[in-house]
């Protein structure tokens, strides 16, 4: 029911209860009030008669004044002599039955007062007749109220309870996606009622579900086509990556042969050794990529690792780029920090962190890398100068394919910060990127126990 209908219903129920309570109270208290008033009337009349006799003046006239009220009868004798009578008894009280029926009286009394014998009787007053009429009215009213209550119960059941019962059955049918049954149940004559609205909703929902089923089938076909295409791409990429190993292996062999030449200057040998080291690292990375691509589970295999050597190795990989750009790193870290996480994830995390630092830092500036342990967590903080902090959208920097306008690397994929966030989240850590005093700060917190998702 609406709010207005609900208030009206409560008002009707309240008035009905008030009316019933009033009738019951009237029925209970009216006889008591009437009896008290009648007793008071009788006592007053008897006292009035006794007062007249006691005064002993003009008895007949004054007693006739008392008895002129049609609701009483009075006979007064003194030593068998008639003083006053309202009935033609001639002082013979034994003749009362001829003139008065006891059932017509509400009270009669014969008694002696001083030298007098008094008989006094009272007829019902008009209020007594009104009371009888009231009793009849109350009985009729109660009957009408009972009939009204029956009609109200009938209305509530057919107008409220029966639709609610159908509504419950229809909802259970909808819960089981049985739209046809829900529509059949809610086909109701009241086109403006709730069941009619639910019937319309069920029909629209059935139509929408049919459309969704059709679109879902089309989507499944599209996904299958995408899966086939991705499988082909994966094979193609694996083939291309694998093909890189052959020329790289030849280059490694060539460098090793050159290093065997003792006539090479020492400076050239040092450069070749550095080149050989980087080629071996590249070959190892290619093998890891092939391994992760073909065996997806191994990439998330967590094991205790020391993060410090990985940091040093990653810094060593970027040494040439840092030197060419004139960057200087202020590195603060302990001797050892053990985490339980994937080796590949740790390497990828640090590679993306330092790659972003070098990409966004202006030339000939300094960046900082701080590694600290606080309780059960490792805190890694990186900061670097930025040409224009306003060009960085710090709220969306971790979004997929985000590119800052300050980036000068045209080959940037927009995956670096997104990958950092994904790795940190998988290892139940936190991350934040924010400006402070003209620098950009990246703070990463990881649990040392290494709990991962």
Task: Provide key terms for this protein.
alpha+beta; 16% strand; 453 residues; 11 strands; four-stranded antiparallel beta sheet; five-stranded mixed beta sheet; 11 helices
Bulk shape: rod-shaped
Low-confidence stretches: 296-300
Q: In which order are the strands of the major sheet placed?
A: 6-8-9-11-10
What fraction, in percent, of the residue positions are helical? Answer: 55-70%
Q: What is the arithmetic mean of pLDDT?
A: 76
Biggest β-sheet, characterized? 5 strands, mixed
Strand content bin:
15-25%
One letter per element, helices H and strands E, the order comes to HHEEHEEHHHHEHHEEHEEHEE
- SS element count, helices: 11
Specify the structural class: alpha+beta
Distance between the termini: 49 Å
- Count of beta strands: 11
Radius of gyration: 55 Å
Produce a short descriptive summary.
This protein is of the alpha+beta class and 453 residues long. It has helices at residues 3-55, 59-67, 96-99, 126-175, 179-185, 194-259, 266-294, 307-317, 319-325, 343-360, 416-426, and strands at 72-78, 81-85, 107-113, 116-122, 303-306, 328-332, 338-341, 366-374, 377-385, 430-436, 439-447.
Q: Can you walk me through this structure?
A:
The protein has 453 residues and is an alpha+beta fold. The protein has helices spanning 3-55, 59-67, 96-99, 126-175, 179-185, 194-259, 266-294, 307-317, 319-325, 343-360, 416-426, and strands spanning 72-78, 81-85, 107-113, 116-122, 303-306, 328-332, 338-341, 366-374, 377-385, 430-436, 439-447. A 5-stranded mixed beta sheet has the order 6-8-9-11-10, covered by helices on one side. Strands 2-1-4-3 form a 4-stranded antiparallel beta sheet. Helix 4 (126-175) packs antiparallel against helix 5 (179-185), helix 4 (126-175) packs parallel to helix 6 and helix 6 (194-259) packs antiparallel against helix 7 (266-294). It starts with a helix and ends in a 6-residue tail after the last strand. Residues 296-300 have low confidence and may be disordered.
């Amino acid at each position: 029911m609406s709010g207005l209908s609900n208030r009206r219903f409560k008002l009707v129920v309240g008035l009905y209860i008030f009316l019933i309570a009033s009738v019951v109270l009237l029925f209970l208290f009216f006889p008591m009030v009437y009896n008290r008033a009648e007793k008071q009337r009788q006592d007053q009349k008897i006292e009035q008669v006794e007062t007249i006799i006691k005064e002993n003046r003009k008895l007949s006239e004054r007693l006739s004044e008392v008895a002129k009220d049609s609701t009483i009868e009075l006979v007064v004798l003194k030593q068998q002599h008639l003083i006053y009578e309202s009935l033609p008894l001639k002082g013979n009280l034994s003749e009362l039955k001829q003139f008065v029926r006891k059932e017509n009286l509400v009270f009669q009394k014969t008694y002696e007062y001083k030298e007098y014998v008094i008989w006094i009787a009272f007829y019902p007053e008009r209020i007594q007749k009104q009371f009888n009429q009231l009793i009849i009215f109350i009985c009729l009213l109660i009957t009408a109220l009972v009939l009204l209550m029956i009609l109200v119960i009938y209305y509530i059941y057919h107008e409220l309870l029966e639709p609610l019962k159908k509504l419950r059955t229809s909802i259970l049918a909808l819960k089981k996606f049985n739209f046809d049954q829900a529509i059949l149940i809610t086909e109701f004559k009241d086109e403006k009622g709730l069941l009619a609205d639910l019937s319309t909703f069920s029909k629209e929902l059935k139509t929408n579900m049919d459309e969704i089923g059709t679109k879902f089938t089309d989507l499944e076909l599209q996904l299958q086509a995408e899966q086939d295409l991705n499988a082909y791409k994966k094979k193609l990429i694996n083939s291309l990556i694998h093909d890189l190993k052959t020329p790289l292996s030849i280059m490694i062999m060539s460098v090793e042969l050159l290093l065997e030449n003792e006539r090479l200057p020492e400076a050239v040998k040092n450069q070749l050794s550095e080149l050989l080291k980087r080629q071996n690292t590249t070959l190892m990375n290619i093998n890891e990529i092939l391994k992760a691509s073909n065996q997806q589970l191994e990439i998330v295999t967590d094991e205790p690792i020391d993060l410090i050597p990985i940091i040093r190795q990653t810094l060593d990989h970027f040494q040439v780029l840092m030197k060419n750009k004139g960057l200087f790193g202020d590195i603060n870290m302990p001797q050892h920090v053990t985490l339980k996480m994937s080796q590949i994830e740790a390497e990828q995390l640090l590679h993306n962190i330092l790659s972003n630092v070098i990409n966004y830092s202006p030339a000939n500036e300094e960046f900082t890398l701080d590694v600290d342990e606080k309780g059960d967590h490792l805190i890694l903080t990186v900061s670097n100068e930025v040409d224009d902090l306003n060009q960085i959208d710090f709220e969306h920097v971790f979004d997929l394919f985000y590119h800052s306008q300050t980036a000068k690397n045209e080959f940037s994929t927009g995956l670096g910060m997104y990958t950092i966030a994904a790795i940190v989240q998988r290892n139940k850590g936190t991350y934040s990127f924010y400006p402070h005093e003209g620098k950009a700060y990246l703070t990463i917190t990881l649990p040392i126990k290494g709990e991962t998702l």
